[in-house]
Amino acid sequence: AVLRWTQEGFQRTGSADPAGGTPRNLLGFKDGTANPDTASSEQMNRVVWAPAEGGAAWMAGGSYMAVRRIRMRIEVWDRSSLKDQEETFGRYRSSGAPLGGQHEFDKVDLTAKGPDGSPAIPANSHMALARGDGSVQILRRSYSYSGGMDAKTGQLDAGLLFICFQRDLQKQFIPLQQKLAKSDRLNEYIQHVGSAVFACFPGASSGGYIGETLL
Length: 215
Description:
Blueprint: H1 41-47, E1 63-72, H2 74-78, H3 82-89, H4 126-131, E2 139-140, E3 143-149, E4 156-166, H5 173-183, E5 190-200
Antiparallel strand pairs: 1-4, 1-5, 2-4, 3-4
């Protein structure tokens, strides 16, 4: 195996939040609230682990990883109001709760109405689009990155290393990203500048090795 490419990323330190809460991205919002429960075999089999049937036999028990480098326009974001930021994400910045809720993991109700009768969670908010009807899920493991200053613009070259795992890219990652690309309010503040997908082999059995299923 030969190393071809690396990208440094970071999250908050363990001592910054001993409770181990959901980490925040560089826009100040919690990132990864709606992840499936990794302790649940049912959820992991349904969302993450590639099946033996209907796919590549050598990938059974492995997972497909998508990686995107997403630059955040932090200077523009910082000039927007808190109300606009929260409506862009569909969650409160302080708690991570869905708009209209109180706690981060409150059940999301996309039909809830605000005081003026309009949807409490805007239909084009990032959370509403990413969640949809709840039938499409992925497992996120994202990191922030910082590449210093952009010499051409004088702005920060920083953002999110979006990493996710799923059992089927065609049925999960791709339709989800197409929907977000079409109407996500967050698109005003971000730019996708790199993308790749990887096949992650299943684990090795006793006496075996990683990649044995293919080789």
